[in-house]
Each structure stands twice: as C-alpha cells, then as structure tokens.
Write a structure and sequence with these properties.
Layout (H helix, E strand, L loop, with lengths): L1 H9 L7 E4 L7 H8 L5 E7 L18 H8 L3 H8 L1 E4 L5 E4 L5 H14 L5 H15 L13 E5 L7 H10 L4 E6 L2 H11 L7 H22 L3 E5 H6 L1 H12 L11 E2 L2 E2 L26 H16 L3
Parallel strand pairs: 1-5, 1-6, 2-5, 6-7
Antiparallel strand pairs: 3-4, 8-9
Helix pairs in contact: 5-6, 9-12
Length: 314
C-alpha cells in the first residue's frame, strides 16, 4: 500500500500521441520497436502491444462501464508471465537471452483504478492515457521513465493495419498519432514465416494472401491519410537504418540520437527476433538472405504473385 501511495504521488503522466507499428508478422516490427526503446523522448512499450482481445483488434471502450470494465478490456495477458519468467529471446542455435521485466500486474491494476478515479473521463483517449500512465509507472525497473520530456509513446501490434476499421478506430482515439508499417520482401518474409510457424503458413498461396492484404492496406492508408502513415521496406530499414530513423524522428517530432540505431530492451542490447540463428547484437543484415532457403520454383511463384506490389512500396 505504501508503494502504491508513493507511486501515485510521483506518477509521471503518460498522455503523449501513440506511434503504432503494425504489419504482418516476421516483417521487422520487433526490430523497430527495439530501436525506439532507449530514446529519452519516448515511452517505448517493450514488446507486442496487446490492448485488444485479440491483439489485432483496436479496443472498444464503454465510457459508461467504469474503471474495472476498462481494465478488463485493456490489460495485457503477457505481463504476469513476463514478470515471473522475464522477457526471453530465443535463438535457433539454442542460445537465448532473458531480461528482467519487473511490472507486477496487480500493482498496475490498482494504480490504474486509482488514477481512473482521480481523473475526469470524457473520451476513450482519457482512458488510454490512464492505462499507459499505469503501465509505465508500475514498471518498477523502467530505465527510461524519468528521462525526457517525452513526446510520444511507441508500440507494436501485428496485423492491425490490415483491417481499415481498426486503423480508423486507432486514429479516432489518437488523431495526433502515427501509423508505421514495414513491408518485407515477400520471398524473404515467407522463408522466415515458414521457419517460425510452418503449420500456420503451410498453404503458400494463403500465406501470400496475408502478405498482400497487409501491404495493400498500408499503401492505401498512406495514400488516404498522408503523413500520418509511414510505409517503408524492412530491407531499407536494415540497410539504411540511419536514414530511416532520421525520417521517423522527424515524423514523430523527436531528436535524432544514436540510441535510434541500437536495438535494446529496457536499455540493454538485444539480439534480433529471428527464426534463424543470430549471435551478434545490433542491426544485422543476415535476414536479408532468407529467400535463398526457399526452393527456386517457390521463389519464382512468389515473385510472379507479389513482385510488382513489393516494388510499388518505394
């Protein structure tokens, strides 16, 4: 109880615009979120942001429901597991890294309920501000909480971009927000997806349909929503990290700092989230060669189906 009262009295408000990274899985979303991780002007959510249930659905909040209802809608299932086990990054070679994640879920819940009672709630954004304030302040070893001043929140939610209704719901809550979508070369993406989840992507044409839907949706959103949407290839992010992160810094309104070039978890260097063996830290280029693991006829088929769409990303 004393910890709760102390945290309430010293809580850092987290009410900045949300920069949401979203695209089909295995396309670099984790990398981008970890490049944002150490920037002192950002509240960076440290793994997949799962506000919706399922996660790719933007949460709908009943403003008449009250704090307990809002909490049940928004709380993230993974928090308890990560508190107990740490954030573990596996490697195909058998090695892994485990990082402490000291965010007690019940402490966050109590903090959320108290903060919600203290604030006049008039909009969905008000509830989300309370949620993110409870999240980042309940995260006891958050290395970046007191740096700042903050200008944005960053988070990564796979697949949300593919459903325009979810994109519109996000921007309804965050009209000042930004949507960032990465597009990975389709053969390279397919090789990674098959290695990571072979059963889920066993039907090649169905898998390519998922990639196509995500890419078309991102390009359509960029065309219609202008500079609120940033679309970039994964390959450009990896090969020209400095250029891409400078563009994103300008878009978000943060200073370009060296921290944007180093993937970290809570300030600690972390290896790539890869279905293949990775031993070094930092931004690595080996994922660019994954297409070579596919049979030549599969690569030809992918290029025939999706090559022109990928080239249009620019």
């Amino acid at each position: 109880m004393r910890l709760l009262e102390r945290r309430l009295s010293t809580a850092i408000p987290v009410d900045q615009p949300l920069v949401l990274v979203s695209q089909v899985q295995r396309s670099g979303g984790t990398l981008l979120s970890q490049l944002f991780d150490g920037h002192p002007q950002l509240h960076a959510h440290p793994y997949e942001l799962k506000l919706g249930k399922p996660k790719e659905v933007w949460p709908r909040l009943d403003l008449g429901g009250g704090p307990e209802t809002w909490w049940k809608t928004l709380y993230e299932f993974d928090v308890r597991r990560l508190f107990d086990q740490g954030y573990e990054k596996y490697s195909a070679g058998g090695a892994s890294e485990t990082f402490p994640f000291l965010l007690p879920l019940q402490f966050q819940r109590r903090l959320f309920l108290r903060l919600a009672e203290q604030r006049a709630i008039r909009s969905e954004r008000d509830v989300l501000d309370v949620y993110f304030t409870s999240y980042f302040n309940a995260w006891l070893d958050n290395q970046n909480l007191y740096a700042g001043p903050k200008r944005a929140i960053t988070g990564f939610t796979p697949r949300l971009v593919a459903d325009r209704a979810q994109v519109d719901a996000f921007f309804a809550a965050y009209p000042d927000g930004r949507l960032v979508s990465l597009v990975r070369e389709p053969s390279s993406w397919l090789a990674s997806a098959l290695r990571h989840h072979p059963e889920g992507y066993a039907d090649i044409d169905e898998a390519l349909g998922v990639w196509r839907a995500s890419t078309n949706a991102a390009l359509e959103a960029r065309s219609q929503l202008g500079d609120r949407v940033f679309v970039c290839t994964y390959e450009r992010l990896v090969q020209s990290t400095g250029d891409v992160m400078r563009e994103l810094a300008l878009l978000i309104g943060i200073d370009f700092l060296p921290t944007l070039l180093e993937p970290t978890f809570n300030g600690m260097p972390i290896r790539a989230d890869s279905a293949f063996e990775i031993v070094e830290h930092g931004v690595v280029t080996s994922p660019l060669d994954r297409a070579a693991t596919l049979a030549p006829e599969v690569r030809l088929h992918v290029d025939e189906q999706l090559g022109a769409l990928y080239a249009s990303v620019g």
